[in-house]
Amino acid sequence: MKKIRLSKSCLGPEEVQAVAGVLGRDFLGMGKEVEQFEHLLAQYLQLDPSKVVCVNTGTSALHLALLSLDIGPGDEVLVPSITYVASLQAISATGATPVLCDVIEGTAFLDAEDAERRVTLQTKAIMPVHYASSSVGIQQIYSLSERYNLRVIEDAAHSFGSTRDFKPVGHYGDIVCFSFDGIKNITSGEGGAIVTSDLQVLDRTRDARLLGVEKDTDRRFQGERSWLFDVTRQGFRYHMSNIMAAIGIEQLRKIDFFSKKRKSLAKLYKQCLSDCSFITFLNFEFDHLIPHIFPVRIIQNRDLVMTSLRESGIECGIHYQPNHLLTYFKTPYPLPTSELLFSQLLSLPLHPDLSEDDVLYICEKVKALLR
Ligand SMILES: *Cc1c(COP(=O)(O)O)cnc(C)c1O
Question: Most buried among 3, 155, 267, 274, using CB within 10 Å?
């Protein structure tokens, strides 16, 4: 039976060769490849090279961004309930409290009105999540942040390569965090990046990724180490390695191919499933975003559809189980839109190695089940 994966890394001989190159130079830690990857990312985002800081995961990017703003115990951070648990764990790792908010039904994006109701004197920041790569609605979040003097940390883990206001996502914004884990729009194996124009955040995150050793980044990029140094803040072992950066550099070269492929497959899904009365789509405009996932709403029997697709070799997923239903993040209040979407959402396979025939095959199976 044909097996179709929900998502996967898409790698070629270029990545293999790049990693072999790093191994051959016997310098695996953070050095020249990481510096180059940061520069290439900045160039892609149309930013000055100093504005990108690479780390080992998207979760660490969020964690360091929060810590660099002195967010910690006693503080509150607003976050949508529909997101990967990484967003929540990054907040709680600082000692701050994630305050879970509802989402907008059409896009699963953070609902600014619901978020506003949850603002208190302890609220320090707001973390909108680019669900399925879309950040439509971010303007309302920025105006909320201005009214209450909140910092904005955009969880852009899904949306690398997408555009907003005619610029790449990451070009505008307070602090934008990306993930390059294995299945994201581009991968560096594992990896993440913090993008901002805030000089203090840049300085602090650069040091914090290397155990807080001040200015160690500069020395590592010259192939050296620091022997006499000062540490003034909590640091972590969160830097990116040359092996990871070498993969990331090759992946970034392929972004146009990945983009075309993901966009056209998403459009094909929409076209094929549009006559199916039990399916509705979220309101995404695939010309502007590179869809990381392809969630649809199945109005009836979602679980049955999911099991049957799996039985016919088609992997599918649920993005996401609302975090306010988890033991560790449980809220005393309901979040009705998140719960409604949770009962209906089903993500169909989407990755650049999927063919048009695969999509047509999946659509036929889905339609047969719902008929
Ligand atoms: C992948 C992801 C993250 C975390 O990224 P990692 O690189 O896996 O740590 C954060 N938020 C969302 C919404 C994600 O999908």
Answer: 155
